[in-house]
Amino acid sequence: MSLPEKAFPVSWDQFHRDARALAWRLAGEGREWKAMVCITRGGLVPAAIICRELGIRLIETVCVASYHDYVEQGQMVVIKGISEELKADGGRDILIVDDLTDTGKTAAIVREMLPNAHFAAVYAKPKGRPMVDTFVTEVSQDTWIYFPWDMGFTYQEPIAKGGRS
Ligand SMILES: O=P(O)(O)OC[C@H]1O[C@H](OP(=O)(O)OP(=O)(O)O)[C@H](O)[C@@H]1O
Ligand code: HPA
Ligand SMILES: [Mg+2]
């Protein structure tokens, strides 16, 4: 198992700003969303911010786990699917939200469940990008995004001495 070469640490402030930027882009679509489907667990945070901004009150979860061993992607497991009611008509006018798309595998599984839904992620890597309709920032495939809910305050090594971020 090897760590991606580059690190992209995201603070709570920055994540809130980026999730809001995603909401602005989605608002620009000028659409009325019937419901939001949030991909747990990472999608829970942007979902809370975006549904507040867009006035969406019907929130469903789809529970997918794939990264069992940190950066190594394991077997995909759908722990909880989407209600039959929301799956009717292929998920038209439903907004799917996740924190990021990396290889695009998680997005592909959920898209299969809701082929007519709109897929939004805050961050996207090149492999996953074709799977998303709207995103805010693209980072390279060899970058690991460190989310604020996975981090704490620690001493930072100076860059000249090998500090990563
Ligand atoms: O495009 P992919 O290569 O499929 O990777 C993206 C997915 O990986 C992470 O979730 P993870 O499965 O680690 O679970 P979590 O959201 O519970 O942290 C992230 O939140 C995305 O859902
Ligand atoms: O870059 C990432 N950061 C955090 N979780 C992830 N899950 C897949 N890729 C990533
Ligand atoms: Mg996830």
Automatic annotation (TrEMBL):
Binding site for guanine: D102, I145
Enzyme class: transferase
Residue ranges annotated for the Phosphoribosyltransferase domain, each copy included: 11-154
Keywords of this entry: Cell membrane, Glycosyltransferase, Magnesium, Membrane, Metal-binding, Purine salvage, Transferase
GO MF annotations, alphabetized: guanine phosphoribosyltransferase activity; hypoxanthine phosphoribosyltransferase activity; magnesium ion binding; xanthine phosphoribosyltransferase activity
InterPro entries: PRTase-like (IPR029057), PRTase_dom (IPR000836), Xanthine_Guanine_PRibTrfase (IPR023747)
Pathway: Purine metabolism; XMP biosynthesis via salvage pathway; XMP from xanthine: step 1/1; Purine metabolism; GMP biosynthesis via salvage pathway; GMP from guanine: step 1/1
Source species of the chain: Pararhizobium antarcticum
Entry's family note: Belongs to the purine/pyrimidine phosphoribosyltransferase family. XGPT subfamily.
Membrane in keyword set: yes
HAMAP family cross-referenced by the UniProt entry: XGPRT
Residues the record lists as binding Mg(2+): D99
Positions that bind xanthine: D102, I145
Membrane topology designation: Peripheral membrane protein
Quaternary structure, from the entry: Homotetramer.
UniProt subcellular location: Cell membrane
Name under which the protein is recorded: Xanthine-guanine phosphoribosyltransferase
EC number: 2.4.2.22
Role description: Purine salvage pathway enzyme that catalyzes the transfer of the ribosyl-5-phosphate group from 5-phospho-alpha-D-ribose 1-diphosphate (PRPP) to the N9 position of the 6-oxopurines guanine and xanthine to form the corresponding ribonucleotides GMP (guanosine 5'-monophosphate) and XMP (xanthosine 5'-monophosphate), with the release of PPi. To a lesser extent, also acts on hypoxanthine.
